[in-house]
Design goal:
By secondary structure, the chain is mainly alpha-helical. Helix content is 94%, strand content 0%. It has two helices and no strands. Helix 1 packs antiparallel against helix 2 (29-107). The relative contact order is 0.06. The model has no long low-confidence stretch (mean pLDDT 85).
Length: 108
């Protein structure tokens, strides 16, 4: 993001400089206004292109993070299910041992 801000600042400075240069140029008003409009359109198009690239980059990063998040959630669910199954098996084994111990105690 830092580089993007620098680029936008430089473009803004160039636009202001060009505007001042055109305004103080010794030409007729029609020519000056035409040049001003042409430069303005050029800079607007350039700025739009830069913003499109920036938004595309942000969108790509968002999609990547979203997919990684989905993967982590899926992995977390899988691990949770594994732990839950292990705990259930452990409980079942414990119950069986308790029942065996009760049965052994009654038979002795």
């Amino acid at each position: 993001m830092k580089a993007d801000k620098i680029i936008l600042g430089v473009l803004g400075g160039v636009a202001v400089g060009a505007l001042l240069g055109v305004l103080y140029a010794p030409e007729k008003g029609d020519k000056t206004r035409r040049k001003l409009m042409d430069k303005s359109n050029d800079y607007a198009d350039e700025l739009k292109d830069k913003l499109d690239v920036l938004l595309g980059s942000i969108s790509d990063k968002y999609e990547k993070i979203w997919k990684e998040g989905e993967s982590l959630v899926s992995e977390g669910k899988s691990k949770y299910q594994d732990v839950k199954n292990d705990a259930e098996n452990f409980m079942d084994e414990g119950k069986a041992k308790v029942e065996n111990a009760k049965s052994d105690f009654r038979n002795s």
